[in-house]
């Protein structure tokens, strides 16, 4: 029961954050979510109901689905083309960051070398979701964006393996290089093979079901949503990388979606809508938890002069990672100066870094060292969010602002609806049908007030339902009107290139609206 209450509070906080991000459109939802998470901690009646953090549950139920859906949005052949760069950034760059950050912390932070490497290993994974939060309102360059996305998909596993190596060094007092390399290959290769094989079996099973009378739209989508949870925990049970397994599974499902979109269009459409909703909620939850945990960690730290070593260590970790990434980008990835800094600062840290820090609770790590790791890595996460948010304002070009987009799309929407209303006005329709259709079309451009809605609602309640003939006329009026809207948007999309994607979103809205007005009720008899 306590777990259900805790989960409900976090989900509600995520929803509130998303609403607030619409009010404060210039602030990324990630920052708003962190603030909301902090507020939950400061309110005793709420903060006391949040359950203790479990890294295994966090990674398995939040991070794994996010990575699965991120993989599902990436073409498998695109990964094949970037395999060289993926290995460079998820193996060689990660190891280089580990070494430089590890020795940097050991030298400056006055901690033991094994603990320094634990801190460095946790700081290696990057977060694609967090990267999006620091480029809000800016045009992220495509080439650097591809590197950062591919890196964040696969470097979590590298960080986990290196952390295990550093933790065993901390506990046993020595490093077993041979065992570490074997574990890395077993975990990474095993994760790829298991993820591909398991996902392929699930895909074939789902495709067989679609082609039989046993298919169920809701059951199919539920199976799709729970797939990353099942694969992650199964992969961890057989001691291969669950993170890599769900990413590869997502890539396999991308290829499925490409070739089965029209096999069962309603199912695919509903699946995309569910994924969009779940991804938005989980992304917001990640930062709600981060804001909550950061204040919780701070509150438990007893500040003395020496205790501020965590701040120094967090700064050293961040600077070491940024400089290493910049130099590596210039020398090995052939970036110019600007691209090098974008790549370096774009390695933003988030959910996985926090989760890895908490995995130390499962090992025999001293309480003082555990707390030092938590708060130092929290400083790293905060810096990796704040610094690029500021610097990217000077490095990246500004995208169209939300206000500009809203104004322009508003004009397009109004003109689109006028085209539709003109078409309906020219049709021969009963007055009650014409009035109903025009009201719904006016609602498209959000020019109907709540007062107007109440009047229309009362009219629907008081007056009898349309006859079968009237329903058919209503449907045909809508089809004619929406066809005019699509034709107008098709013309606009060829001239308003800057807002083309938003125009296509409007086009999609119209297609969905048309699916709503075409129903089986038009064939009902009017004699009833």
User: Regarding quaternary structure, how should these chains be classified?
Assistant: single chain
Sum up the overall morphology in one term: elongated
**Low-pLDDT residue intervals, each spanning 5 or more residues:** 521-528
User: What is the β-strand count?
Assistant: 0
Strand content: under 5%
- How many domains, in number, for the residues? 2
Radius of gyration: 27 Å
CATH class of the largest domain: Mainly Alpha
In terms of structural class, how would the helical and strand content be classed? mainly alpha
Count of discrete alpha- or pi-helical segments spanning 4 or more residues: 22
Distance between the termini: 51 Å
Q: Helix amount, in percent?
A: over 70%
Name a few traits of the molecule.
528 residues; mainly alpha; Na+/H+ antiporter like fold; 2 domains; 22 helices; disordered C terminus
Please explain how this structure is put together.
By secondary structure, this protein is mainly α. The protein folds into 2 domains: 305 residues, Na+/H+ antiporter like fold, CATH 1.20.1530; 122 residues, no CATH class. Helices cover 78% and strands 0% of the residues.
């Amino acid at each position: 029961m306590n777990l259900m209450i805790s989960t409900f509070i976090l989900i509600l906080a995520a929803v509130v954050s998303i609403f607030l991000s619409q009010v404060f459109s210039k602030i990324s939802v990630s920052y708003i979510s962190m603030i909301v998470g902090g507020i939950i901690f400061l309110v005793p009646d709420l903060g006391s109901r949040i359950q203790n953090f479990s890294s295994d549950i966090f990674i398995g139920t939040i991070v794994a689905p996010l990575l699965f859906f991120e993989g599902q949005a990436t073409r498998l052949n695109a990964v094949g083309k970037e395999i060289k760069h993926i290995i460079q950034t998820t193996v060689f760059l990660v190891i280089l960051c580990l070494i430089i950050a590890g020795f940097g912390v050991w030298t400056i932070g006055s901690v033991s070398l094994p603990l320094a490497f634990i801190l460095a290993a946790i700081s290696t994974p990057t977060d694609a979701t967090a990267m999006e939060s620091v480029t809000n309102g800016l045009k992220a360059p495509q080439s650097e964006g591809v590197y950062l996305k591919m890196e964040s998909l696969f470097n979590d596993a590298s960080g986990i393996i290196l952390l295990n190596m550093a933790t065993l060094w901390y506990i046993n007092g020595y490093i077993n290089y041979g065992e570490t390399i074997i574990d890395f290959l077993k975990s990474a290769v095993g994760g790829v093979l298991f993820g591909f094989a398991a996902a392929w079996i699930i895909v074939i099973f789902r495709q067989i079901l679609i082609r039989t009378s046993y298919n169920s739209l809701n059951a199919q989508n539920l199976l799709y949503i729970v797939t990353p949870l099942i694969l992650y925990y199964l992969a961890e049970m057989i001691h291969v990388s669950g993170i890599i397994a769900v990413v590869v599974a997502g890539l396999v499902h991308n290829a499925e979606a490409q070739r089965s979109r029209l096999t069962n269009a309603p199912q695919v459409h509903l699946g995309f809508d569910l994924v969009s909703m779940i991804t938005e909620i989980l992304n917001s939850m990640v930062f709600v938890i981060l804001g909550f945990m950061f204040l919780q960690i701070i509150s438990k730290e007893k500040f003395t002069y020496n205790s501020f070593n965590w701040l120094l260590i967090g700064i050293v970790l961040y600077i070491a990672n940024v400089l290493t990434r910049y130099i590596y980008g210039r020398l090995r990835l052939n970036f110019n100066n600007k691209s090098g800094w974008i790549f370096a600062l774009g390695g933003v840290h988030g959910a996985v870094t926090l989760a890895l820090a908490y995995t130390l609770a499962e090992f025999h790590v001293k309480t003082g060292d555990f707390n030092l790791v938590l708060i130092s890595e929290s400083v790293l996460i905060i810096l990796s969010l704040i610094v690029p948010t500021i610097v990217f304002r000077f490095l990246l070009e500004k995208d169209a602002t939300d206000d500009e987009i809203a104004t322009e799309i508003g004009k397009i929407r109004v003109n689109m609806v006028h085209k539709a209303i003109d078409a309906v006005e020219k049709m021969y329709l009963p007055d009650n049908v014409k009035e109903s259709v025009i009201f719904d079309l006016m609602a498209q451009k959000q020019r109907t007030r709540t007062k107007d809605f109440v009047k229309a609602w009362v009219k629907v309640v008081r007056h009898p339902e349309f006859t079968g003939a009237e329903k058919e006329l209503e449907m045909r009026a809508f089809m004619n009107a929406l066809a005019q809207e699509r034709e107008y948007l098709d013309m606009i999309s060829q001239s308003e290139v800057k807002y083309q994607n938003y125009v296509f979103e409007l086009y999609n809205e119209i297609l969905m609206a048309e699916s709503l007005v075409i129903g089986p009720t038009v064939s009902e008899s009017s004699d009833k």
